Description:
The structure is a homodimer of 501-residue chains.
Chain A: H1 18-22, E1 30-33, H2 45-55, E2 60-63, H3 72-78, E3 82-86, H4 92-100, E4 104-105, H5 115-118, E5 126-134, E6 140-142, H6 149-155, E7 158-164, E8 210-216, H7 230-248, E9 259-261, H8 265-273, E10 282-285, E11 288-289, H9 291-298, E12 302-307, E13 309-310, H10 314-321, H11 324-327, E14 331-333, H12 336-339, H13 342-348, E15 351-355, E16 358-360, E17 365-366, E18 369-370, E19 374-375, H14 382-388, E20 391-395, E21 399-400, E22 405-406, E23 408-409, E24 424-427, E25 430-433, H15 439-450, H16 453-469, H17 482-490
Parallel strand pairs in A: 1-2, 1-5, 2-3, 3-4, 5-7, 7-8, 9-15, 10-12, 11-13, 12-14, 15-20, 16-23, 20-24
Antiparallel strand pairs in A: 5-6, 16-17, 18-19, 21-22, 24-25
Bound molecules: coenzyme A (COA) (2 copies).
Residues 262-264, 287-288, 354-358, 367, 370-371, 376-377, 379-382, 400-401, 405, 484, 487 of chain B line the site of one coenzyme A.
Domain Acetyl-CoA hydrolase/transferase C-terminal (chains A, B): 319-462
Protein name (chains A, B): Acetyl-CoA hydrolase/succinyl-CoA:acetate CoA-transferase
Domain Acetyl-CoA hydrolase/transferase N-terminal (chains A, B): 15-214
Amino acid sequence: MYEERIKRSGMQGLITSAANAASFIKDGMVVASSGFTKAGDSKAVLKAFAALATTSPRKITLLTGASLGHGTDGTLTEAGAVHKRMPFQVDPVLRHAINEGSVLFLDQHLGESAELINENIIRPDVAIIEALLIEEDGSIVPTTSVGNTATFAAKAEKIIVEINVSVPLSLYGVHDIFSTGVWPDRKIIPITAAGTRIGTSAIPVDPEKIIAIVITETIDSPAAINERDDKTRSIAGHLLQFFEHEVKKGRLTNQLRPLQSGIGKVANAVLEGFIDGDFEHLTMYSEVLQDSTFNLIDAGKMDFASASSITVSQPCYTRLMTNFERYKPHIVLRPQDISNAAEVIRRLGVISINTAIEFDIYGNVNSTHIGGTKMMNGIGGSNDFARNAYLSVFVTQASSKNGAISHVVPMASHIDNSEHDVDIVVTDFGLADLRGLAPRERAKTIISNCADPLYKDLLKDYFLAASRKGGHTPHLLEEALSWHARMDITGSMQKETNSFA
Amino acid sequence: MYEERIKRSGMQGLITSAANAASFIKDGMVVASSGFTKAGDSKAVLKAFAALATTSPRKITLLTGASLGHGTDGTLTEAGAVHKRMPFQVDPVLRHAINEGSVLFLDQHLGESAELINENIIRPDVAIIEALLIEEDGSIVPTTSVGNTATFAAKAEKIIVEINVSVPLSLYGVHDIFSTGVWPDRKIIPITAAGTRIGTSAIPVDPEKIIAIVITETIDSPAAINERDDKTRSIAGHLLQFFEHEVKKGRLTNQLRPLQSGIGKVANAVLEGFIDGDFEHLTMYSEVLQDSTFNLIDAGKMDFASASSITVSQPCYTRLMTNFERYKPHIVLRPQDISNAAEVIRRLGVISINTAIEFDIYGNVNSTHIGGTKMMNGIGGSNDFARNAYLSVFVTQASSKNGAISHVVPMASHIDNSEHDVDIVVTDFGLADLRGLAPRERAKTIISNCADPLYKDLLKDYFLAASRKGGHTPHLLEEALSWHARMDITGSMQKETNSFA
Ligand SMILES: CC(C)(COP(=O)(O)OP(=O)(O)OC[C@H]1O[C@@H](n2cnc3c(N)ncnc32)[C@H](O)[C@@H]1OP(=O)(O)O)[C@@H](O)C(=O)NCCC(=O)NCCS
Ligand SMILES: CC(C)(COP(=O)(O)OP(=O)(O)OC[C@H]1O[C@@H](n2cnc3c(N)ncnc32)[C@H](O)[C@@H]1OP(=O)(O)O)[C@@H](O)C(=O)NCCC(=O)NCCS
């Protein structure tokens, strides 16, 4: 059985139940699991471990590529099974535990999250890897994501493989596994275009480390289908108009440059916008491939897309999996330290588009913390891209919750992407091109182009009063965070309901 | 005359006075000048321009590699000759003008400051380049720095050369000029060790663009001699002890990894500390070479040092210039987009050591703004290195001005290097290794290891109260910046003198 999927002879004897495999995971262990933006994650063993922890308490430190699907983080959290979690998550139950302090969370740049392991600061005891198949030599072909799996496989003491038989074998060949190695023999990453292939189709593995194989057939959690609404349509419109302007100015061609786009409805709306526009021969050098990528490939607008995972809606997933050979020549899946590598992003001149929780009048971006304290998801790859992009774009709605929240604030309550790394900010009201502008110039442009009119005068008043006080980046320290404090107390940033400061 | 220095035939006719050359610079122009950390800067033409501006007003946008020496920025500012300045400065007169808003300043990552020019966002009208000599083909050999000069030479409409006859011809060959080119043909930077040479000894120049040559003989402004005091000695001691610990743990060898060190007394003290230690075959991949580098070469402890400039004290300068052949095999000067390249810094696994103005209990670093508003110098290369380093270290004294200022604060008043990019923080009281720690763990470690005992209880109280309120990164928004506000009003962060909040 499973000869097509377990090619190494003798290894079929390792097939066991998820519960059995999970029992190899002991209290206090560091467990590293495949999974990136809900794709290619552990479907069985982590949940089985949660079940064991419910009856007999045990806790792990859990490392992944990025977020897990199927509510696995929530199930583990409810079972009290997580001591520390890194480098990213999107689960409401886990988020709550992180914010109350009962689970420790390490919010890391996704492109650097393999470093602590490569450099032996953290050593995984067990890796759990979802696989398409195991080769004769024991090497593992992953499924819909690569993430940190190659690092986990190299560094973990033991490996549990989840063979997912629902994933078609036609995925074989889409992966491009490459390791830079470690100092002093760290290699150049010789990628010079989104489509450059530099590695192998499987992750090298010492077969002796594989201790259990579990068969699964659950598909990835689907991404939500993001309907375009008026706001996302406006944001996308401003950005597409800006690209057209740059083409007219001769700074870009209508091929643009390799695109990166964060997950979410705005990013999707921007990409969908390319379907009707004059842009062609587009490429992506990104983290995640979403529905819009495949729609652009189908429309003949996108030539090639590179990423670390495929995270799509249910209908798109079906379309893809039943027809993978059609898409395979146009896409590649890489380890996240390659998809998010500073080196490649700068070399290719990526245009990065990510969503901000809020930005301030000087262009500092908060990607992670609501009100400066509560973790939303994590910095993800936003700064991997923004820091080295040719053009670093951040988008957000100008205001939300019926105007109670302004996403353009005097001072960002937490800073993940500093003013130094932000070129363009966009809201549904407009776009501000910050390139070449000093802080006082930036403030004027951001307030007049991007703020919701509800908050424009408040922002202007703040900026003028701060400017009278002076400084390269004028601020009134007593007021800088008062909007957030007000929001915390009254549920709105608007002054009418002021009860703080 | 000057046949040795002006090898291109016919070009000697371009020799003229500084005043004459400066008259080519018109009101409103963008002027790009050589100069990096006070080395290899324009000694004559910019000052002559300032003199012209005094009698007949004119203003320029001034771009450099990094800081200029000889008070040139101050002279230009006093003459009202600067509209906008980028990417870095250290001049008290200019700093004052920036902070009162009369000169606009663009504080940029030094490693990325050539990007706006390469991508035609800003176009220099005139470049002023200090040169050792001009080759037969018109290409220019720079002096004690390379900085952004290769980009300026390629992109400026016209070039004015300052031949500095005080710089010995023995410098010839120390430079390694390499351009990555621009998208879509951007090249890999094939550096795999501090000492890899990849380029040419001179900067390619279209000789038609050279409109004037000025002869100078002023040497670079000397760096201050930094005497080690008790505090810098303590900080250096903690860091050296940490390196020894890492060697014992097997994570480093006694060769360490290529070192980067910011300018200043602490960095110098750390490097000097290596002279007596067990470390050997050290290398540097840094921005600036300081006295300590040459002392380590002389002591046989350092094999090779790569940077973009040489900025040393007067005695060290003399020693170097009279004996350059001795040092030349051990050093190389590169363009700042190569010395500070993300790609190379990550590949080589650099250990970066920079000074912070302050850091907060979660490890966010302020490198630039006093009290969140007043520009000190600029971010410089700190984040180029910290963002991609193997180990990113920030040092500062725990407190200063007789305890009036704590450099460990609840929330950094400005953030240049975020928690994501900071591995180790050190003060004279101790070192905190933040690798693998979640925010709440970091706060405990930083407060107990790094804070001045004067402020320890205040920080603990803040952290405990904030933790009770909750959040992944606990903060009390109303108090987070109150220390700085208090400092602003009372001249001290200590609570006894509280008159704010
Ligand atoms: C920033 C990010 C959270 C935005 O995601 P999104 O789905 O567009 O989020 P929204 O703006 O719709 O919603 C964020 C929530 O926070 C709330 N919020 C935002 N600012 C707030 C504030 N100051 N106070 C209170 N709530 C706030 C919003 O109202 C919204 O709440 P809701 O879910 O109850 O409606 C998300 O893009 C992210 O996690 N980014 C970081 C990672 C990253 O950029 N990766 C890039 C590569 S994938
Ligand atoms: C951060 C930096 C300014 C520190 O330089 P330094 O010479 O060690 O500075 P010090 O800590 O001695 O002094 C900074 C001044 O700010 C003052 N200061 C610091 N924090 C303050 C605060 N919160 N409120 C008021 N004053 C403050 C200090 O008291 C000191 O004042 P003084 O000059 O009147 O004594 C400097 O390293 C820098 O510019 N770094 C950014 C660039 C960089 O890192 N480059 C790296 C590659 S070279």
